[in-house]
């Protein structure tokens, strides 16, 4: 958590190897991200990380199931295999009937669920989520968050999540506050 402009999104991008760090270092499973060349960094991001953005950021020309299958397709899986795996995750998120629709033909909450499915479909080690429920009303936000966390927990994916919502933060095992680019540990619950 932290005020607007305090550096939360920047931190997520640095942790995910999307932005290089000007100082310090980011390590993932012993690997120093800054020391990897572009190909190895891209492969690490593709295979080990998932992302959920504030407004979902689905590709409008792809169907719901094609969007959800994207990380598997990028990793080289055959279309039928990738779509089958995506269908399973979509089913767990209550979206089985919407597989053939385009993002413009489903609601905002459903778009966010598809974004969650896409972030988790390849069973990444870590999912980075930047205000994943920020654009939803509170009832929808609570449901999407619970489904997101349950699925992540079931497959052993760690979630690093930015939020402005204290109720969302209350679901975390550990909480940190960002202030002018400095991170402080707030509380350990786990
Ligand atoms: N590409 C960029 N180039 C230069 N400065 C940037 C860039 N992106 C963000 N900043 C600046 O870095 C600081 C942190 O931005 P960041 O987006 O990380 O904040 P945030 O905590 O995510 O805010 P919000 O809650 O509004 O999303 C801000 O002062 C911002 O203006
Ligand atoms: Mg931000």
Number of domains: 1
Strand content: 15-25%
The CATH H-level homologous superfamily: P-loop containing nucleotide triphosphate hydrolases
Count the beta strands. Answer: 7
| SSE ordering | HEEHEHHHEHEHEE
Unreliable segments of 5+ consecutive residues = none
Total DSSP helices: 7
Quick one: biggest sheet?
A: 3 strands, parallel
Element layout with pairings:
Elements: H1 8-15, E1 27-28, E2 31-32, H2 38-48, E3 49-52, H3 64-74, H4 79-92, H5 108-120, E4 126-130, H6 138-155, E5 158-162, H7 166-169, E6 174-179, E7 182-188
Parallel strand pairs: 3-4, 4-5
Antiparallel strand pairs: 1-2, 6-7
Helix pairs in contact: 3-4, 3-5, 5-6
Bound molecules: adenosine-5'-triphosphate and magnesium ion (MG).
How would you summarize what this structure contains?
With 190 residues, this protein is of the alpha/beta class. The chain is built from 7 helices and 7 strands; from the N terminus they run αββαβαααβαβαββ.
Task: Describe what this molecule looks like in 3D.
The chain is an alpha/beta fold. It has one domain: P-loop containing nucleotide triphosphate hydrolases (Rossmann fold, 3-Layer(aba) Sandwich), CATH 3.40.50. The protein contains 7 helices and 7 strands. It has helices at 8-15, 38-48, 64-74, 79-92, 108-120, 138-155, 166-169, and strands at residues 27-28, 31-32, 49-52, 126-130, 158-162, 174-179, 182-188. It has a 3-stranded parallel beta sheet, sandwiched between helices. Strands 1-2 form a two-stranded antiparallel ribbon. A hairpin with a 2-residue loop joins strand 1 (27-28) and strand 2 (31-32). 34% of the residues are buried. The model has no long low-confidence stretch (mean pLDDT 91). Bound molecules: adenosine-5'-triphosphate and magnesium ion. Adenosine-5'-triphosphate binds next to helix 1.
């Amino acid at each position: 958590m932290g005020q607007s402009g305090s550096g939360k999104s920047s931190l997520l991008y640095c942790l995910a190897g999307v932005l290089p760090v000007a100082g310090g270092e980011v390590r993932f499973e012993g690997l120093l991200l800054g020391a990897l060349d572009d190909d190895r960094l891209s492969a690490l991001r593709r295979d080990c990380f998932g992302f959920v953005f504030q407004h979902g950021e689905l590709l409008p020309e792809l169907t719901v199931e094609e969007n959800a299958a994207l990380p598997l397709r990028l990793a080289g899986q055959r279309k039928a295999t990738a779509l089958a795996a995506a269908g399973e995750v979509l089913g767990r998120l209550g979206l089985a009937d919407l597989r053939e629709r385009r993002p413009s033909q489903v609601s905002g909450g459903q778009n966010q669920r598809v974004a969650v499915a896409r972030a988790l479909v390849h069973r990444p080690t870590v999912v980075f989520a930047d205000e994943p429920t920020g654009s939803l009303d509170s009832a929808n936000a609570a449901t999407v968050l619970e489904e997101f966390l349950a699925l992540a927990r079931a497959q052993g994916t760690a979630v690093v999540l930015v939020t402005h919502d204290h109720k969302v933060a209350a679901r975390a095992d550990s909480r940190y506050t960002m202030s002018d680019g400095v991170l402080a540990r707030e509380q350990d619950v786990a």
